[in-house]
Structures are given as C-alpha cells and as structure tokens.
Amino acid sequence: MIKKSRLLVLLTMVFALLFVSACSSSSTDTSQTDETADEKVVETAVNDYFANLPDDIHKISQTDFVDMVKAGEDMTIIDIRSADDYAAGHVKGALNMPWGTELAANINNIPADKPVMIYCVTGQTAGQTVMLFNLAGFEAKSVNLGYKLGISQVEGVDEIIETTANEFDTTIETAIEPDIQTAIDDYYAGLADVKDTQFANYKITEDDAKALLDAGDESIQFLDIRNADDYAAGHIEGAVNIPFAKGMEADFSTLPSDKTIIVYCYTGQTAGQTVAGLRLLGYDAVSLNSGAGTDATGTAGWTNKGYPLVTE
Q: Which end of the chain has fewer beta carbons closer than 10 Å to its terminal beta carbon, N or C?
C-alpha cells in the first residue's frame, strides 16, 4: 500500500509539472500570436491600400482644389508646412499640422465623415501623409505639387488665402484602429532617427543619390514607379520598375529587404505614398527629391539637375 501511495504521489507531481509547463508554453505562444496578429493588421491594410488604388490615386489637381475652396465645399484642409509658412499665408480654413509627430498627435481631432485635403510645400511629404491618413480610415487626397508649385500658381488663388490661424475642434474624437494608430505614431517618431542624415524626412536629395550611385554603393536600390514605357525610355542606372498602379503591392516582395530603397516617380508625390507603404511593411524606403523631374518641378529633380537616364 505504501509503495502504491508513493507511486501515486510521484505521478501526481509529474502531471502537475507537465500542466505548469503546458500553461507557460501556451502563454508564450499566445503573446507571440498577438504580436504577429498586430503586424498582420498593418500589413493587410497596406496591401489593401495599393490593391484598391482609385483612379485619382489619392490626388487632386491644384485647380480643382482651389475651385472647391471657392465653392465652399465641405471638407477638412490640412496644411503640413511649418508653422512659419502657415502663418505667412495659407488656404482659407486650413488647419496647421506641421510635418512630424504633430500629425500623429492630432489625427484624432480630424472628422472622418468628410474628405480631407492635404498639402505641403511641393507634394512629397503630403504623399506620405495621405497614405497614412487613408490607412487610418479617412478619405484623404494630396493637392498636386503642394503649395509652392501648385496652389500658389493657380489664377485667382489670392482670394482664398488668409493669415488667420484656424483651431482644431477638440470635441472631435475620431476612433482609429489601435494597431494602425501605433504604426502611425512610430512612423512619425522615426523621423527623429533620420533627422541629421542624408535621409531626413524619409527623402534624399538628387545630389546625395547621385553620389551613392557613382560610388557603386551596394546598400541602395533604386525603384522607378513611373509607367513601363517611361521606364523603358530612360531610367536611373540599376533601377527596377514597379509602376504605381492598382496591384503594385504584389511585386513588393521582389525588393531587397537589406537595402535602402530609393523610390522615384515624376515629381515625388506618388513616391511619397509608396515610401510610406514600404516603410510600414518593414522596408527602409526613402523618396528621391522631385523624382525624375518634369517642367513643373523647375530646376529640381534628377534630369533637371542634369543627371542622366539610361536604357540598359
């Protein structure tokens, strides 16, 4: 009887240890599963964004935008230029959310039941912001070529420019999916890490990009998101082509995950959207200042700087 009692005690101890171990393992696995689920929420949202790009590719022409303001259309206008630029003159009714962490901090004070029009100086950082705002559930568009090259050049624009500051409606508390909010917070907080580098604002100048190309720097990869015909007619040496269009996310996996992806389009605006998406997917992506360059970008942009395109 004594032997049987000891055996029962030993078996009970073994079962108890196995139960504790199983519970511990289950707890760890659940944590890992939750973390993976969080990443999947953002990944799915990014892929859906590019899979369902609208015909207007989340942009509005500067002329149409000015006409909407003149007509008193019900929309939220966000000026992401510096506070000083905003104070010197901005579009009537525009709220100032300077490029950076203030965008993440104040995004909940933006109403989700009306269109959101966003402009910066030339359109590039607005492109990044528009992508993030759409991910958060807003119907956001960037104004073509921003304030400097777009809005300010429209005939009759002076009648919709003011210097009076507009205040946020702090009673608005727009709910944003927690994982998306965290991703947006991290995105803008990350600007501090690149502030004093050649990749400040998740961008790179034409001169710095050309220097890396000439040096044969293997830590970079150029990505041309212009249409296939323009890529074939001439592109930056070594660039791969994924045209900015619905379904482009299917080719993101072909990009190297261990290099800095320098994205360029025509003027830098759709490159901004692409950079935001790639960074949320874990790529180290930046946009080329003013893209390949067009007449609209003046002396800015790769070709306007006199740098060559190749047809390799």
A: N
